[in-house]
Amino acid sequence: MAEMLHSRVSNATLGIVRAAVYGMWAKHLLEDSVDRYIRTPVEFFTPVGPLAWLPDAWWPWIYRVEVIEGGRVALLVGIGLCVVGLGPYRLIAVATCFGLTLYQAFVRGYGYIHHGELAMLFAAYVLAIYPAQRGFSLQRTARSPGPHGTGGNTAGDDLNRAAMLTICLALCFTYAFVGAHRLVHGGIGVFFDGTILHYITVRTFETDIDAPGLGRLVLEIPALGTAAALGYAATTVCELFAPLAIFARRFRWIWITTIIGFHLAAGLLMGIWFTANIALVLLCMTDLERVLARCNGLLPRIGLRPVHFLPVAGDEPT
Question: Quick check: pTM over 0.90?
Answer without folding.
Answer: no
